Amino acid sequence: MAARARSQRVRIIGGRWRRRLLAFPALDDLRPTPDRVRETVFNWLGQDLDGLVCLDLFAGSGALGFEAASRGARRVVMVEHDLRAIRGLEANRDLLLRTPLDTPPDKPGGPRRDAQPVLRDAPPIPRDALPIPRDAPRIEIVKADVQRFLEREGERAPGAYDLVFVDPPYRLELLPTLLPRLVACVAPAGLVYVEQPCGSASVTVEPDAAWTTVRRDRAGAVDYRLLKLAAVRTLPAQPDVNPDTLSPEPFDDALTHEDGSR
To answer: How many Cα atoms occupy the beta-carbon half-sphere of 202 within 13 Å?
Structure first.
């Protein structure tokens, strides 16, 4: 039971929320990227993601998206279709955005130590009453089927994302259909992180000619890598719109799949 409880918590490794523990629901196919792998990936990325726009597909626990936000990403869009996972993502987003930067991290098994004014007999301040700092990253959570989301984003805002995390449920082997759809969504110099099990059919999908592998490694039975577009493409002319004002359009639940994909 104790091991199962530990498996439902994930720790942010670096950045403004370093060492924060986040809880997530116990759901089939929901397996956060291990700390060791995340640390390697963010070393590849250079630690500081200042100003980047990131997309976390099959967000699940949010381990990758929240890590990117912690390390300076200006905007992170998390796409998830399971309502229980979405509720967990929303709760953790609120927890992080309203946590003062000088708040000590919570310790497993110990008392919570929320930052409070040092006033004798002062009542505690509810966390949801604390203001969100002006410099906090923008974290958006979208309930959608990933395949449909990519189709619409590629048409609506081509090249909008500097960094994309793709960690689909292993059993569905979705990378062969996801990578072609990602071409239209990634910025010309953008990067895509993909994670998959070693030895499955999807691993042999060595990304097609549209992609080049920048870095690659293995951890146990997991193959993970960074991809970039093989050729710099010219994006179609777009209206002069501030990207900070763009948000993914709302999706109808009818677009979500019931196959458990996260």
So the answer is: 22
